[in-house]
Amino acid sequence: MNLYVTLTLAGLDAAPQVVQAERDRVLDILGVEGRQAVQDRMKIDKGGERESLQVERTPISVEVFSKDVRALVDEYGRKPGSAPPPASPSSTLYDWVLRHMQLASAASDAGDAQSAWQHLALRVAASIGRRGIAARAPFANAFQAMLPRVEELSNEAAANIATGMGSA
Question: How far apart are CA 98 and CA 91, in angstroms?
């Protein structure tokens, strides 16, 4: 689950300064715009999935990725009939239930209230196990949306390189 772009310029291993500068410029732009494109396609939630996005840059590539399990589920979904997700009080699902569900409980103490929330989280987990979760594919959709921008920046860089090498 990542958006990965590598710019390789065959035959220019010892690339002139103008080539390196253009490659860096394009990759820096794609890193920022790629992260934003993925974020824009993620569901807005207080769980931090959008904030979990990271950008990693090498001399010839840029990668937008997340190590958060929520991003994995958002990208690929969850198959109906699979094992239910964890629903313990320390789980992401439990936190989601606390934020999004209402519980009309006449719990007499905090222990009963936690037990009621735990039961509700287990019910939600069982439902997810039965029904699954549809994939939203924010990374794949962002990659498709970014292709025209990649082409535009590549053409712009090629023109700048040609101009820079012609004047050298």
Answer: 11
Identify whether residues 18 and 97 lie together within a single domain. Answer: no
Shared domain for 12 and 31, answered yes or no, is: yes
One domain for residues 60 and 36: yes
Measured CA angle at 38 (ends 124, 126), to 5 deg:
10
**Token pair listed for 37:** 């494109």
Hunting for tokens 């929330």 — which residue is that?
A: 117
Tally of CB atoms within 10 A around 58: 9
Question: For 96-135, b where at least 16 C-beta lie within 10 A, e where not — what string?
Answer: bbeeeeeeeeeeeeeeeeeeebeebbbebbeebbeeeeee
pLDDT in tens, 19-70: 888 889 999 999 999 999 999 998 876 668 888 899 998 888 889 999 888 8
